[in-house]
Specification:
By secondary structure, the protein is of the alpha/beta class. The protein is 39% helix and 12% strand.
Length: 426
């Protein structure tokens, strides 16, 4: 089924156009679906004995070296869409800004691709969506925008179950809608109710500043959805931290959390003793609670950056950081302390808010059982700790290393996680 639209061009006199120039010319005049995937320059069109075009004599387009600048698709949704395109189009890589039709796609392949999207996410997009959104970035935005209203609720019940303990999964996918949870839910036992817990702050809703405050909101949601009985909680990335803190609050309220499942989530307890002194210093400087959280997170960020650099790089990084801190302190000290209350700033973008919340969170102890799935390509906060920091906080930890990076663990390998998890929860 290798059907492609190929243009054969006989240039006139003067400068010979390149394939890129021809493609741009056609793009301005035709819909994406009608833009040829290849342009072949000929001195003349082959003609038969009667003077008509001899189509069989037209040469096949030569394979050209892929010179595209690949913009990596980031996030579970975009990465999974890129994988679908790569398999369908037979190309080695697909970037977030690549055009489906430039890569050799056509209307027949588009129909197959959208059917695959429907199989994965349960949403059937019309073909016209791809004509106006022919990139991974555009298609992912269209997919998120097409979510039914019930899927935009704070809690979404993907499946009703039976006797097994219900599972509440905090998907943590701030930009991709958590569509990977559909695959996870399908691969678990059908008699287990599966709830997806959305991150706070989506669809224009407010987002608290700290993981602890987020968990207090989610506790009320979980109890309202399941007023009694044991629970299983799980979460990915930032969602794992929120799920952990929610489990602590539920346990304190007398609910039994059988197990907590954490995907790509480690326990970062570094600089725990400095959290409150930094908060006190931030208050003295008039930074407020949000500023205190940012300063503690910045300390952890510095530690992460230093770990990635060699000795010379560390010295240069520390010098720049010290100079920047000195300038900030000088500006502060030019004013009387404490500073007057500043105007309330605009809320930061959602990703930044969650990043600051995660960097500022120090998990406390919890007397429960934790299962950790960790991506092999990612370096944890505490290198060399096989429990990823959780052993000192919880009663028991079971860990599993999964191939891939932070995004691939819930796209290419989500079925492996589901299989292992089902065995543990059975």
């Amino acid at each position: 089924n290798d059907v492609r639209l190929v243009a054969y061009v006989v240039p006139g006199r003067g400068e010979v156009p390149t394939a890129g120039v021809l493609r741009d010319f056609v793009k301005r005049r035709l819909p994406s679906a009608f833009v040829p995937s290849a342009f072949v320059l000929l001195a003349a069109l082959p003609l038969g004995p009667t003077g008509k075009l001899d189509r069989r004599a037209l040469p096949a387009p030569e394979a050209t070296r892929d010179s595209r600048e690949i913009v990596r698709a980031r996030g579970p949704l975009k990465l999974q869409l890129a994988e679908v395109w790569r398999e369908l189009l037979g190309v080695p890589q697909v970037g977030a800004t690549d055009d489906f039709f430039d890569l050799g796609g056509h209307s027949l392949l588009a129909v197959r691709m959208l059917q695959r999207v429907h199989d994965l996410y349960g949403t059937l997009l019309p073909l016209a969506v791809l004509y106006t959104n022919p990139t991974i970035d555009g298609l992912s935005e269209a997919l998120i925008a097409s979510e039914p209203a019930e899927f935009q609720a704070p809690l979404v019940r993907l499946r009703d179950g039976g006797e097994r303990t219900p599972l509440f999964f905090f998907h943590g996918d701030l930009n991709g809608g958590g569509f990977y949870t559909l695959t996870l839910a399908r691969r678990l036992a059908p008699d287990r109710t599966f709830w997806v817990v959305q991150p706070l702050g989506l669809h224009g809703r407010p987002a608290p500043m700290t993981i602890e405050a987020m968990a207090r909101v989610h506790v009320e949601q979980v109890i309202a959805a399941c007023p009694e009985g044991p629970l299983v909680l799980g979460g990915y990335c930032n969602g794992g931290l929120v799920a952990y803190e929610t489990a602590r609050l539920l346990t304190a309220a007398g609910r039994h959390v059988e197990r907590l499942v954490l995907v790509a989530t480690d326990a970062d307890t570094r600089f725990r003793a400095l959290r409150w002194p930094i908060a006190a210093a931030a208050r003295l400087m008039g930074l407020g609670p949000e500023g205190a959280l940012e300063q503690f997170g910045r300390l952890r960020y510095f530690a992460d950056r230093l770990r990635e650099l060699d000795t010379a790089g560390q010295a240069a990084f520390l010098a720049r950081a010290a100079a920047r801190l000195a300038r900030q302190l000088a500006r502060r000290l030019r004013h009387a302390l404490p500073l007057p209350a500043p105007d309330v700033p605009a809320a930061p973008p959602l990703f930044e808010r969650y990043y600051d919340a995660c960097m500022g969170y120090v998990p406390g102890p919890w007397p429960g059982r934790v299962v950790v799935f960790w991506p092999e390509a990612e370096l944890p906060a505490r290198a060399g700790d096989p429990s990823y920091g959780w052993a000192r906080l919880v009663a028991r930890v079971d860990t599993f290393r999964i191939p891939g990076d932070h995004d691939e663990i819930v796209t290419r390998h989500i079925e492996r996680i589901a299989t292992t998890l089902e065995e543990l929860l059975a």
